[in-house]
Design brief:
Strand content: under 5%
Largest sheet: none
Helix content: over 70%
Shape: elongated
Number of helices: 3
Length: 59
Amino acid sequence: MNGWMQRLWLEERGATTAEYAVTTMAAVGFAGVLLVLLRGDEVRGILGDLVRRALSVDG
């Protein structure tokens, strides 16, 4: 590799790791918000009703 190409490659080497870290932290934050929402009685009742209606057979 040329000197400037090698320097560019070395400078960009940690960028992918940083992107993965940011993405992982965003996913953890989103999972935390979902967990808080799903623990609420109102949301649990809505989801339970939705599942019951989806599984019931109206003949």
